[in-house]
Amino acid sequence: MYNFEYKNPVKIIFGKDSIPKVADEIPQHSKILMIYGGGSIKSNGVYQQVKDALQGFELHEFGGIEPNPHYETCMKAIEMVKYEKVDFLLSVGGGSVLDATKFIAAGALYGGQDPWDFMKHRYEIEVQEALPIGAVLTLPATGSEMNGTTVITRVSTQEKMAFGSPLVMPQFSILDPKCVFSLPDRQVANGFADAFVHVIEQYLTFPVNSPLQDRFAEGILLTLIEEGPKVLANRNDYDAAANFMWSATMALNGLIGAGVPQDWATHMIGHELTAFHGIDHARTLAIVLPGMMHIRRDSKKEKLLQYGERIWNIKQGSDDQRIDQAIQKTVEFFNSLGIPCTLPEYDVPKETIGKITERFKTRDSKLGENKDISYKEVETILEDRL
Ligand code: NZQ
Ligand code: ZN
Predict the structure, then answer these.
(1) Can you give the CATH number for the domain in which 149 is found?
(2) Domain that holds residue 28
(3) Any ligand 1 atom below 6 A from CB of 63
(4) What percent of the chain has pLDDT over 90?
(5) Closest ligand 1 atom, CA of 182?
(6) Do the domain assignments include residue 5?
(7) Segment 163-215, tens digit of pLDDT
(8) Are residues 236 and 288 in the same domain?
């Protein structure tokens, strides 16, 4: 196992009807900006629950954060934060709203010209300060509720980029699994697929003798596989919703990734598919991952065989046959959620592969757990998905 440091200060408040507890978590006399998306919280009653709980606070609102949140919209919110002298940000929504809130929290206090610097120069410019954040999470998927990552899209340049800082980790996140009840099938499927691939990015690399992390990861994968059909079949199954929500949080709160190599190349390539074609984040991962497993079958061999055996019970055949079966099972899992896994099924033309490859070439990126995936491998992986 590698050396590591691990600290996760996010207070999780989990359970049925826990949203009113938000009032206990925000310091008295705070000037709050409640940030939300396109209106789902108004139709499912979450908005009203938060408003009722926060009577007595100075509460401002900023709605209209898009899925794959836009830099341009965040900049408008930053203006509002400065104008109203807000000192606490409350995200009420899914991963997009929370990611936007993180960007706003850091951007509002940034001394430089443009907070996009955090994305563009992510290895040179660090966040120095950020407004405090709280979250009411309405969609299990990203793990954003318990991590310090944010992913923002700049519409004008068709770029989707990330930065991370412990300063934008929420002080608390409220997870009421009843929020799952109002999710459409598409978002449930996305949530399961995104969480699944988060685990894979931290698990399907090479062995470093970390059996505990491996079994945590496998436990999350198996739970997602079991609970997915239950949530899709019955949206009001509270227990399945709760298991879904906690699995998604655990998939990306740093625990399973501590002390082990991490990949994230599937995510980096997937972000480009969203940037160019607006495809839902989780679906881009379902497209790229089978290609990644196929093309990286040698460097990932031992973990691919372990994954096949422990997750899909594949024990027969040569190594190559077992790896092929593991890839096939992964595709079938995504398909069972209603998620297609090839580029033509999303009407992505072949020319997009060239555009994405060019971006990685310009950035001189080296992706993956071995930092050996260059633009050439990116091209091969995407061609595998045609
Ligand atoms: O905008 P509203 O009206 O709220 O509707 C949303 C949105 O249309 C709706 N929704 C959310 N909760 C709902 C609901 N509808 C009914 N009932 C509810 N309870 O669902 C739609 C999608 O929401 P969004 O927040 O975009 O989804 P998700 O949570 O999957 O977030 C995706 C974003 O997170 C980023 C992705 O790249 C993408 O931009 N990621 C963030 C990560 C992180 N911070 O660690 C890691 C991930 O890998 C990912 O990259
Ligand atoms: Zn993801």
Answers:
(1) 3.40.50.1970
(2) 11-178
(3) no
(4) 99
(5) 17
(6) no
(7) 999 999 999 999 999 999 999 999 999 999 999 999 999 999 999 999 999 99
(8) yes
